[in-house]
Amino acid sequence: MNGLLDLHMGPDLHPVDEAERDAFLTAAGLLPRDTCPAGFRGHSAIWARDRDLLVGQAALVVLTDETLRPRLVPSSQPASIRVAAIDALAVRAEYRETGLEERMVRRLVRDFAGATEAVIYVGQAHVPVLASSLRSVDPVDAVLG
Asked: CA 47: distance to chain centroid?
């Protein structure tokens, strides 16, 4: 499938209307919702298209509820470290083997953290990942692919 793809990612590739958004969410197996997780606020979002077809989306949300901080910051990190989560991550099933999910996550984290450290909760399991880990490890498809 990779030879036929013309994938592009960016914040400007958002759904053109609610019908396209709803069709994509259904195809990706994600339930529609318009709110951030409790204690977080929206920061940035990215969408991916293969030509005109919306194939992926992800959002980065940042911690705003300081009462959650002690439970979300690893004890090995300073209490002031930036905390965020990847939210609404979805890719159409037929595009999951392209590495698109990982590329979207890496781009959001890179744009958010830059060269600084941050704790990012990723995936439905909300696995904590340090931004420095993403910077220091090659993408999985480059290693295992």
From this structure: 10
Token pair belonging to 122: 């990723």
Separation between Cα atoms, residue 13 and residue 72, nearest integer Å = 31
C-alpha atoms less than 13 angstroms from C-alpha of 66 in its C-beta half-sphere:
2
- Residue range 49-96, pLDDT digits in tens: 999 999 999 999 999 999 999 999 999 999 999 999 999 899 999 998
The two structure tokens encoding residue 67 = 């009462």
Minimal CA–CA distance to 7: which of 87, 112, 97, 142?
97
The 10s digit of each residue's pLDDT in 13-39 is 999 998 998 889 888 887 766 778 889
Q: How far is the CA of 59 from the CAs of 21, 44, 68, 144, in angstroms?
A: 14, 6, 20, 26
| H-type alpha helices, 45-129 | 69-72, 100-113
Largest CA distance in the chain: 48
What distance, in Å, lies between the first and last C-alpha atoms of the chain?
A: 14
